[in-house]
Design a protein that fits this description.
Layout: H1 4-21, H2 32-91, E1 94-97, E2 102-105
Antiparallel strand pairs: 1-2
Amino acid sequence: MVLDSDIQDKLSAHREAKKETVKTIVEKQVEQEDIDTLKKLQASMDNLIVSFGQLAIQETAVKAQKAALEKSLVDIKAEELALAKQLSTKYGDGSLDLETGKFTSKS
């Protein structure tokens, strides 16, 4: 049978062994220069993150503008084809000098 004194002895031995394995926590004061350097790096990182955010917004705006311009290009090309067909029907095949307004027929 286990005696209370045996339990107490084992518990004391266990606590002593545990104290030896636990590292002592030591607080040190960090130099202000090091703190300032860390704060400067943190501020630089914050600025970089903001810049990336602004860039992402600008990129979205540029993509929207590009899509609008591409649609305008498609619309202008379609209008150009329709006008070319209309002018060919009206004047026949040939070339037009936009400066003088003179049409030269191929036939």
